[in-house]
Amino acid sequence: MRTRPFWGRAWSMGCAVLLVGLLMPSVSVAKTAQEIDNEVNVAIAQFDKQMLGGTAFLQEANGVLVLPKVVQAGVGIGGEYGEGALRVNGKTVGYYSIKAASLGVELGAQETNIILVFEDSQALSKFEAKSTTGWQAGVDGNLTLVKSSGTQPLDRMKPPGEIAGFVFGSTGLLANVSLQGAKITKLNK
What SS3 state is found at 79? Predict the structure, then answer.
């Protein structure tokens, strides 16, 4: 009978613990509303700095969900978690978490910022109604990830659909990123 070495079992157990922690019902991480709002402000400033016309683009939206410092990590089994705020007319109207899990060739970790821009008021209303039980990207709304704005300013870009999604880090928009299946749930803060 062949058995796996201790380190292999420990590694697998660590991945399982990470996955379970990401998929458990929403228990708010120790971030306060003020901490989230501060991180959201930083993420918006970074977005505006990296994306020509970013502020004007966000100001024209019906709502903007900003999820700063979303941690994505994995070793075979991957997951992500983060907390952010929904802003309407520049004011925070609610706090949200994002969770996702994936299987496949995953190795490493990264921290990203995610911004969902609600171009359509009906899409925003559906998001707010569904997020109390968990809104799922790509299932509960027509989400289009913007891979690159090129040289065209965002404020002149034709909106790609009901919801435009941006995933960016310290160096700009990230390629080969998917939010498909990520679950966004309203938090009580």
Answer: strand
Backbone angles phi, psi at 68, to 5 degrees: -80, 155
Question: Residue 187 contacts by C-beta under 8 Å, 6 or more apart in sequence?
Answer: 26, 28, 83, 94, 95, 96, 97
Residue pair 101/73 in contact (Cβ under 8 Å)? The answer is no
pLDDT tens for 135-144 read 998 788 888 8
Residue 29 CA, distance from chain mean position: 16
Structure tokens at 177: 């990123």
Write the burial class of residue 140 (CB in 10 Å: 0-12 exposed, 13-18 middle, 19+ buried). Answer: middle
Domain membership flag for residue 145: yes
Q: Give domain status of residue 161, yes or no.
A: yes
Domain count of the chain?
A: 1
* Model-wide pTM > 0.90: no
Alpha-carbon span 149 to 56, nearest angstrom:
14
Q: Which domain holds residue 163?
A: 6-187
Distance CA 24, CA 20 (A): 6
Q: For residues 146, 151, 154 and 158, what is the CA-based torsion angle, rounded to 10 degrees?
A: -70
Closest to 22 in 3D by CA, of 85, 96, 108, 82? 82
